[in-house]
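Q: What structure does this chain adopt?
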Amino acid sequence: MLLLKNNAVLVFLIALISALIFVPFIGNCPLFDWDEVNFAECAREMVISGNYKTVQLNYRPFWEKPPFFIWLQAASMNIFGVNEFAARFPNAVCSIVSLISMFVIGKKFHSQTFGLVWSFLYAATLLPHLYFKSGLIDPWFNLFIFLSVFHLIQLLNNPNGKKEIRHSLLAGLFLGLAVLTKGPAALVIVAFSTLAFVLWNKQIKTLFSLNFLMFVFTALLVSGSWFIAMWLNGHQEIIFEFIAYQKRLLETGDSGHDGPFVYHFVVLLIGCFPASLIFIASYAKYKNLLPYQRLFRKFFVCLFWVVLILFSIVKTKIVHYSSLCYFPLTFIATIGLVNYFHQLTFNRFWKILYWFITVVFTLVFIAVGFIEQIKLILFKHNIIADEFAVQNLQADVHWSGFEFLIGFVFLLGATLTYMALNKHKLKLLYYGLAVNLLFVYLGIALIIPKAEQYTQHAAIEFYRECAKQNCYVETHRFKSYAYIFYSNRLPGDYTNPDQMSFIEKQLNVMEEQGYSRFSSFSTANSIWMQSGKIDRPAYIVSKTKDEWEITANKELTKLYEKNGFSFFVRMPKQ
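A:
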């Protein structure tokens, strides 16, 4: 590993390499429904309306997320324009800050080598890499919690030291920013992790130290600042809806995102391969660590299990909910690689699992390169039961014919990594991780844009055409934010007196039936577009399998259908 005496030069090199890896191609395909487009649309509406105080969707108050990440995206859009690059650029910046932070913290924990290996392993792992190239909220949320935990560890290591006031303030500041990024889950995660740590380390008394109480006060002050501002500005309903939304995520599989208890265990095992198996091999390796290093590791073990168990209990199951585990997972794996590399061993079961995952990944990515041929077989034998998926796969997507080679790149990286671990050759490990990094980079750059063309491109193509005219656009019976973003909806699209009167009455009815007024707005607007008094063309987009529900409306004219979507228009009466 490259070692330099000048840390400033090394930090600059990490920043430069991170930028070269994570910035290119982040605007090479449309944003994905729901989450990517959701946040980007909120940012776009901030830019269009000039209202940076309140998060909006459909130019109405939106309660699901606090504003910090939306502010970052809005700032990016003010610089780069309203587009995919601007929406994803904040996370590209987050990649640079995160990898530098891992290097600096890893160096403080152990050595310069440890910091470099940790940041390298993190960047070369599929899911952490993928989220840095997304427009999702989680990378910044995770980074703030990571930095809060680091400063909290320094505080707990020496609760009455001279520098601990600074650590308590910084730990509280970063935790507060995490709450302002995604919500109170940050408080729950850090609270349970801290409680688990002090019980394990028998440091209950530190919870009552002045500096720890200062950390708690700072965290609550920063995290509560925006909510207090909302309350003082008369937006109490947003806070109540926000609390209700958080409660719904905990108790139900929101929006159909449910799954078994082991969901996130499987996600981490496969999505963080091979780091996940190195983590398993390294987990019990800590006996030779120094006291400070043991304390540091204990807190990260607590953080890992709190996040994993908490989101395994939560009914809503989404891949990125366990993404905070990436930090402690790669951290513990790095301890094994740096301190105990020549002692790492896999038993027969883990060796079989390693090669099983390797073979499956390889075959899947090779198969992706031949999807046009494979889908014909799938259609012929009626293997896919989902009608919408079948229609998606009928999209005309251009493949160069060389994409299958990505599977062999993965196989090479996994083979080199296995040989390095089996023969205890450290240099071979670096080659394996470098090849895996190449695999991840190529896979995201080449495969994801083509996957988008199958799944949603026909609809987004239509929305972009709608942006060229003065019209209304809504979806029928499927949740989406893409139509708002890509059809460039403006505040004036929601000011028609007949429209708002109709929607208000419809919302009253839906509220009596137990539905939220906020989440029902799009449905009410769609009903108005289909039957109310419109003053401009009204376009309705439906999944083709559900179009029968609206074809009975004689005022709607079907324009065409494409790749699972059907497009209708209703013209205003002269």
